[in-house]
Amino acid sequence: MIELLEILWERGRDTASAVSASQLRVLFSLEHADGINLRALGDVLGSAPSSVSRLCDRLEAMGLVERAPSPVSRRELTIRLTGHGRAHLSELRSQREEVLLAAVQAMEPASRAALWEGLHGFRQAVVADAAQAPGPDSGSARPS
Prior knowledge:
Elements: H1 2-12, H2 21-32, E1 36-37, H3 38-45, H4 49-61, E2 65-69, E3 77-81, H5 83-106, H6 109-132
Antiparallel strand pairs: 1-3, 2-3
């Protein structure tokens, strides 16, 4: 959910250095699974490897990701965030935090309290849902 909010946040910004929402999803995915191959990244994103390859081509040209031979297979390449890619995500989060902090500070006290209550309720629902989810050994699918 946080990643989706970050993608929407980036999409709403009007900067020349901003990456597309799809490219941002790649960066977030690599942040959590750095060094995976195109097929695995495609599975994570729900996209065809050819589409992911084109996204990575653009990100590599921007200096945000790099490809390297896989240590496991000579036929595969791994994809990793570069230092510039990590810095981009860090800067994005820093800018977002500044703007959100200013927005919350500008809210009326009653609105801030309502926001807190709503987020608190959301967190409780997520925790309750996670507690009801079957463990990794159960083999059953989660109810929808």
